[in-house]
Amino acid sequence: MDIQQTNPEARDAVLLRLEGSLVRHEDQELELLIRELIDRHCRRFVLDFNLVDFIDSAGIGLIMKFAALIEKAGGALLLCNPQDNVQNVFSMLGIESRFKIFDDLAKALIACGRQLNLEIISVKF
Fold first, then answer.
1. CA distances from 22 to 26, 83, 114, 117, 125 (A)
2. Do 44 and 12 form a contact (C-beta atoms < 8 A)?
3. How far is CA 117 from the centre of its chain?
4. Which CATH number does 2-124 carry?
5. What is this structure's pTM?
6. Tell me: the pLDDT tens digits for 52-78?
7. Kind of pairing, strands 44-55 and 13-22?
8. What values do phi and psi take at 99, rounded to 5?
């Protein structure tokens, strides 16, 4: 996995741009990153699925784990830009009832708040 992070200051929101196939149930490097961001008082997270070409139930489990970490710290996790095949998996597994899923990034960012100090992190699986 390759993680590219911008300036590591405290941010209002974090955009995680995911890329590739999300098929792992455990990803310690990404979990450590999320914990570090929470420790820096980041509370709003947006997962951008625009470049995710495949997700399975293990990948959904990873998202659920991250959501639990974020929500335990009083934060929120939003999902956006799923490709059709990823959206189909979300629908089959009932993810739409658990998360707000936006069809584009702009709508997800607006939901985070109009004036954001945003950190962008790219994660390639």
1. 11, 13, 30, 27, 7
2. yes
3. 17
4. 3.30.750.24
5. 0.85
6. 999 998 899 999 999 999 999 999 999
7. parallel
8. -125, 155
